[in-house]
Amino acid sequence: MEYLNILIGLLFVWILMRGVILISLRRRTKRVAPGPFPLPIIGNLHLLGHKPHISLTQLAKKYGPIMNLKLGQINAVVISSSVLAKEVMQKQDLAFSNRFVIDAIRACNHNDFSVIW
């Protein structure tokens, strides 16, 4: 019985370490902009707070003008520099032309007449 407890404990530690290693390797191999580590279900929504513009400014100071945020299950790239935003909208427009439109924007019909969507 004592050996069974030791075996179960070692198995638990092995599974935990394997999970940590897989998560760290998967995070390193992606070519995404830097950003805060997301929580499992809500992502980085907890970092936005009551005044998202101030929170995004603070995050931009820490992670740079281009950062990746996970808003729930959706990955969002935030560009906080006007120079980079101009380059993305003018020079990289083909790369962003087939982007995903969030259902909430589509439901309000803002995607038909907005410059961003």
What does this structure look like?
With 117 residues, the chain is mainly α. It is 50% helix and 10% strand. The protein contains five helices and two strands. The protein has a two-stranded antiparallel ribbon. A hairpin with a 2-residue loop joins β1 and β2. The longest helix is centred in the first third of the chain and has 28 residues. It is elongated, with a radius of gyration of 20 Å. It starts with a helix and ends in a 10-residue tail after the last helix. Keywords: Membrane, Oxidoreductase, Transmembrane, Transmembrane helix. Pfam families: p450 (PF00067). One of its GO terms (molecular function) is iron ion binding. This is Cytochrome P450.
Which helices and strands, and how do they pair?
Layout: H1 2-29, H2 52-63, E1 66-71, E2 74-79, H3 82-90, H4 93-96, H5 103-107
Antiparallel strand pairs: 1-2
| Main structural class | mainly alpha
Total helical segments: 5
Fraction of helical residues:
40-55%
Strand content: 5-15%
**What is the averaged pLDDT score?**
81
User: Low-confidence spans: pLDDT under 50, at least 5 residues?
Assistant: none
| β-strand number | 2
Feature tags:
mainly alpha, Cyt_P450_E_grp-I, two-stranded antiparallel sheet, 2 strands, 117 residues, Cytochrome P450, transmembrane helix, monooxygenase activity
Brief characterization of the structure:
With 117 residues, this protein is mostly helical.
